[in-house]
Amino acid sequence: MKKTAASKKSAAADRASTTEEAPATEKAPAAKKSAAAKKAATAKKAPAKKASAKKAAPLKRQAPAKKPAVVPKKATAAVKGVAPAKTVAPKPPRGESRTALVRRARRINRELAEVYPYAHPELDFENPFQLVVATVLSAQTTDLRVNQTTPALFAKYPTPEDLAAAVPEEVEEILRPTGFFRAKTKSIIGLSKALTEDFGGEVPGRLEDLVKLPGVGRKTAFVVLGNAFGRPGITVDTHFQRLVRRWRWTEETDPDKIEAAVGALFPKSDWTDLSHHVIWHGRRICHARKPACGACPVAPLCPAYGEGETDPEKAKKLLKYEKGGFPGQRLKPPQAYLDAGGKPAPPLGAG
């Protein structure tokens, strides 16, 4: 009986222990469930991260869009570093019609006529023969140098016949100061022979005859026709070419085309004086490298104003005067061409 009671107690103890351990056994599945839940949550979050990564990807793709914002800054800096209007010639006024161009060109000529009322060829001559020879000699040198050389030449060879029979070496020695003296000697002896043999020792008064003479082109021919025979012509020398392009009268570069384009803007009767006005202005004020814009009487009409010195006092120092001045010039002080604000004033008689 005692054993039975003991066995009952041990059985009861076993049951109690079984009953107490049951919750621990039940907790294990719960832990497994919680771990599974965490994994599931992690699995759910993983796609979310991928999705967020996918959303972030466009931001990386948009990064190149920032580069255009940087490029203009660099471009602007480069533009700032470029020299101002001196390196780039200004364009003519937009929308300038043919009529407006003709009016502007003729106003420029009128202004220059007031500044240089007695403009004339700056080569000394007494007859057509001396003029054609002096013009040929003026290539690649100054008129002043030619005027210093021709008195001795014409004293020794006063007529075409005399020069045609001259000894080349003797003529070369006289012409040496003018430069290219051998080529010039050949030209003036050749044209003297042509005048003697083909034209009776007289300089012809027709363009087609003049251009046949050695060393004589259209420019020289028009100088002779306009100033020895009173026949209108346009002299397209280096000064003339530079100024008419700077004033945007034409964009042509060939002398013959420049002559035709400019001639169409003016009456034929103005051609000779126009040539003198433009050439005088190019030699004295509108220089090739440093035009004296601040002392220019046609500044208000010039599309290229600002290429040169605009300060009146500094521009005044750029004016070129030959020894003894240049007769017939009525050059006003630089301030006369500026208004109270220091800007170019309207030209006289401007409408």
TrEMBL record:
Region (Disordered): 1-98, 324-351
Catalytic activity: 2'-deoxyribonucleotide-(2'-deoxyribose 5'-phosphate)-2'-deoxyribonucleotide-DNA = a 3'-end 2'-deoxyribonucleotide-(2,3-dehydro-2,3-deoxyribose 5'-phosphate)-DNA + a 5'-end 5'-phospho-2'-deoxyribonucleoside-DNA + H(+)
Requisite cofactors: [4Fe-4S] cluster
Residue spans of biased composition, Low complexity class: 7-45, 65-89
Family annotation (CDD domains): ENDO3c
Binding positions ([4Fe-4S] cluster): 286, 293, 296, 302
UniProt-listed InterPro entries: DNA_glycosylase, Endonuclease-III-like_CS2, Endonuclease3_FeS-loop_motif, Endouclease-III_FeS-bd_BS, HhH-GPD_domain, HhH_base_excis_C, HhH_motif, Nth
UniProtKB keywords: 4Fe-4S, DNA damage, DNA repair, DNA-binding, Endonuclease, Glycosidase, Hydrolase, Iron, Iron-sulfur, Lyase, Metal-binding, Nuclease
Repeat in keyword set: no
One GO MF term attached to the UniProt entry: class I DNA-(apurinic or apyrimidinic site) endonuclease activity
Domain HhH-GPD as annotated: residue spans: 137-284
PROSITE patterns documented for this protein: ENDONUCLEASE_III_1, ENDONUCLEASE_III_2
Family, as annotated: Belongs to the Nth/MutY family.
Function description: DNA repair enzyme that has both DNA N-glycosylase activity and AP-lyase activity. The DNA N-glycosylase activity releases various damaged pyrimidines from DNA by cleaving the N-glycosidic bond, leaving an AP (apurinic/apyrimidinic) site. The AP-lyase activity cleaves the phosphodiester bond 3' to the AP site by a beta-elimination, leaving a 3'-terminal unsaturated sugar and a product with a terminal 5'-phosphate.
Name of the protein in question: Endonuclease III
Gene that specifies this protein: nth
